[in-house]
Amino acid sequence: MNVTSRLLVGVAAIALISQDASAQTTVPVSDAPASATPASADETLPPDKDIIVTGTARPRRRLTTSISISAVDATDLVRLAPLGSADLLRNIPGLRSESSGGETNANIAVRGLPSASGGAKFVQFQEDGLPLLDFGDIAFATADTFLRPDYNIQRVEVLRGGSASTFTSNAPGAVINFISKTGDVAGGSIGFSRGVDFDRTRLDADYGAPIGHDWTFHVGGFYRIGKGLRNTGYTAERGGQFKANVTRKFDNGFIRLSVKVLDDRSPLYMPTPARITGTADKPVYESFPDFDLRSGTTLSPYFRSDTAIGHDGNRIASDLADGYRIKTRGGGAQVSFDLGDGFNFSDMFNVASNSGSVITSFPADVAPLATLAGRIGEAGATVAYASGPNAGRAIADPTRLNGNGLGLYALTFGVTLNDLTNATNILSLTRDYHLGAFKGSIALGYFKSFQKVSMDWHWNSYLEEAKGHRAALLDVYDSAGQPVTQNGLIAYGEPIFGNCCQRFYDVDYNIDAPYFGANFQIGGLNVGGSIRYNISSANGFYAGPSRPGMIDVNQDGRIQTPEQRVPVVDLNAAQPVDYRKSYLTYSVGVNYEIVHDVAAFGRVSRGARFNADHLLFGGGVRADGSIADEVAVNFVDQQDLGIKLRSGPLFANLTAFRALTAETNEIAVPVQMLVKNHYRSYGVEFEGGFDRGIFHLLGGATYTHARISESEVDPTLDGHIPYRQAAIVFQATPSIDTGRFVVGLNVTGTTSSYAGDSNTLKMPGYVLTNGFASVDVTPTIRLGLNAQNLFNVTAVTEVGRPRDYIPADGIASARTFAGRNVTASAVLRF
């Protein structure tokens, strides 16, 4: 059955209430938030009048809702100039967002909920109320990978906890909704930006306007090209996006059609060599000579090609310059009509054909080059350059190479993203009512979603010099002078990890979720609740590697040393995937406006995450394709208690939270391990802002007390802090805006955290400071300057191997945020 048939058979819907419902529940066009041009602040609402649509059935002031939600408007997007969606989300309280891997594939966690295998397991990314992908942590295809913030965005709303449990499926932690402009206000922009101290050139444009009284439209997109933030030495960024929508208004509703085309390449930055000294509790992370942690990369123009065997036995030739190559072709429709007598009917639909590929260089081991050569070629082995201008030249003294004497046992993370199609339909019927002093609403709905996950993993192993720019591949020769590598190739597959990762899987995930919601209001009291009955299924198959055998991969008629043991996907041993689970989620909240502009709220919720591809190779799926209930679904129980204040130029939100959950997951690198833990967390998040004349301040902070309450795999972890979870995360953005001139800082930071669940080796806390300034040289032309990591701080977000101790020689690997980078821009508004 094809995707269209699936959606016609099971039309889907969301139905929530004014406090539990979603932005997907449509409102009359006249009530919809107005579009804003990217550089115009006068079309956005001040913080104390902030209107949100995510998590509510109708646009409402945040003060009147019993949810924790933050919003970033188009003006903030331009000022902050985030390098990607994850970079932007560092400014949201409650979230821990790590964008150190580049523009995509970020690690995002919320309120202490775990993300053991990376990605955003308990978080969902949406565009205009519809999921980009049904799962936020698909291996090598996290949801933010298919998202590019640009001038099309009107605002971003982030709902944390609470009604996220019933707002959608698989996102009990948070829903991140990127809301598009629709052309309600005529205007547009053309922006040109250029990296000052790095190579990136980008062109953005958008325009929208009403057409007569009944039509509006908006179009926009971007194109960029460059080498990226780090010293790749080749064009690593290339591509762009186009989005458009058109709306036909009627007296009682509207119809909207939309389209999205994304074709982009961006580099995926991996951990790099790091010297660790000091103690495990107070370590010092430093760069090695010729490999700066802040600007160096394992990517190089002398390491561009890789050949592997795909699941079908055919050869796959990859160019490492493609990095993350992402393609999306999508289209959707939205219909909303008031039927009279308080009834509203709405339907939203989107289908996106997602595909692409991933290729990068991951240092599975960093060690003295002489040591690596001895492991590969045994005693008496020698080393020579295999690529670059010195190809073929012997390295007389490996201990002095590049001033650090190191080598990298590098894996190419080669993955073909065959098909990640997502199709979602949401249908709802809502009724507003008034009964004397009471008013409220009830809603019924149905949500239907289809998610394809089809991937082909084909990793290989190489020897690379430890050099942060233009690194060459190296060949090893045995004591007899015979080559044991092949143009830098150590082995097909990854024997250092036991050849774990020649994989293929093709699985269809279907979600059906009927909804019911109800709420009522009397005076300043709002009470609401909603339930969601999720029916989730998985059907397909997966296959792992065969026993290595001889294959002439390069087809030169000879079997060279790496070709003597080549692992391939063993389709003859493919295993079925066939499981279906049904479960209930709910959310109940109360909001009371104590006095004008001061409100308190409380909420109790039970959400869930249906597990997907990370169970396939971790032992979670039985031989017949079935799965245990507790493995298939991870429940999240949450409680929120908060207070909100609006007072003239001041706004403040303070929320206490508590969460309990379990996680089943597989980690493939840097060490293979099965995660089956129970977690508990509690804490407080604060968000506030202040305006006084030309001075503006926005800020927030989150305290999180998170613990592994029980580990079913390793009981020694009981009571430990989840790795990479800091106790305090904070952000602040002070600025001065005279109307013509804007200058400000954006400060984000974190306290220390542990590199692993063993809680031995720490990663120091850090503060990252970004700066922005702009001037209107004419009423329509604005010049700007943005600086990321202004003070060039070394901010460590991840430790590779080892992650539990400081090695005696201090040699390890770590991933950090990029160092200082400055972008200049010019924007024409019309």
Automatic annotation (TrEMBL):
A Pfam family recorded for this sequence: Plug
Membrane topology: Multi-pass membrane protein
Residue stretches making up the TonB-dependent receptor plug domain: 64-175
Chain residue ranges for the region called Disordered: 28-50
Compartment list: Cell outer membrane
GO MF entries: siderophore uptake transmembrane transporter activity
InterPro entries found in the cross-reference section: Beta-barrel_TonB, Beta-barrel_TonB_sf, Plug_dom, Plug_dom_sf, TonB-dep_rcpt-like
Recorded superkingdom: Bacteria
Name of the protein in question: TonB-dependent receptor
Native organism: Sphingomonas taxi
